[in-house]
Amino acid sequence: MPPLQVVFIAAMNLLFLNQHVEARRIHWHDTGNGSIALEEAWSIPELGLSTAAPPLGQTSAELNANLLDISDQRLAHMDATGVDFMVLSCASPCIQGISDPATAESMAIHVNNELATQISSPSAGNNTGRFGAFAALSMHNASTAAMELKRTVQQLGFLGALVNDYQQSGNDNDTLLFYDQPEYDIFWSTVTELDVPVYFHPRVNVAPISTLLYTQAPWLRGAGQEFAVTLSNHVLGLCTNGVFDRFPSLKVIVGHMGERIPSDLDRIDKEIARQKVLGMPMLRNVSSYFTTNIWTTSSGSFSTALLEYHQQEIGLDRIMYSIDYPFETMEDGKVFLDELEDGVLTEKELKQFTRETAIALLKLNE
């Protein structure tokens, strides 16, 4: 990032922080039937253009325009597809893709301030409460991350945080920071104190890993394979390294139907249990954390058969509707919901999936 841009962002952050900011109490647009979507991306020009493949039929230019937009086409699509409330978060890799700690910390504050400003504007539907936010965090330092999370929740009214998998670090971007280590306990302590969820979202791998694993098959990079492989390792690390045992009230959300973990819980539990004799600190099994600590969403995965299978494995009360806009379309999500309504889920189950679990987890009615 150019030095002048860094200085400008730091100055804007200081100006914002010096203002008296009241927490934005959520008075959300509740029609009684509309859906709530939790993994919905947004970005700012300073973070650059997304190189992700757009939805079929769209161009990269359209995808990037949709990432920058809140109050125009996004809101129009929400109205057309029955989305009552959308939680916005910074598009991957966001702050997790910034290796310099000082730059990452400053940019996180800037991103959060900008998101708070945009969703509070009348043009973004603030008068009817259409948008909430998950904070972007620099995870180079657990104490710094905890402080920024506390600020965004208590002063900006954010609903939790979203981290884009590991934090890259080091001069060559070759140091990876995972949040399942004891040095992050101060962060998880703050998360549980605030009683908000942290959403774990995937990211593209740093060059050394990407080169080693995907040079022979570059088509596997991204959402088709890479995202689930890397993020599921991080989520399973939280389990096996005892994070949920140390923080039993911790709430974590994993998108894309749990990054395939719920589809393979029987084998995961059986094989990981063998690691206990080698000193693994996990006190329970992975399946049990999906009943107490981990929720999943349907973001980017609109499969009726998969939803039914996961309903059997972890229970419908651990699965919430999400879209993954603008990488997926709201219209495709609506088709999925129409299929579920047509005899797959009861009316009560459909409301639980599309809104009731999210209302309780995010405490929207409190």
From TrEMBL:
Provide the alphabetized UniProt keywords: Decarboxylase, Lyase, Signal
Q: Report the GO molecular function annotations.
A: carboxy-lyase activity; hydrolase activity
Keyword Disulfide bond in the entry? The reply is: no
One example of a Gene Ontology biological process annotation: secondary metabolic process
From what superkingdom does this record's organism come? Eukaryota
User: Which part of the chain is the Amidohydrolase-related domain?
Assistant: 124-364
Q: Which InterPro entries match?
A: ACMSD (IPR032465), Amidohydro-rel (IPR006680), Metal_Hydrolase (IPR032466)
Which positions carry the signal peptide feature in this UniProt record?
A: 1-23
Q: Which GO terms describe its cellular component?
A: cytosol
Q: Which family does it belong to?
A: Belongs to the metallo-dependent hydrolases superfamily.
Identify this protein by name.
Answer: Amidohydrolase 2
Species name? Lentinula detonsa
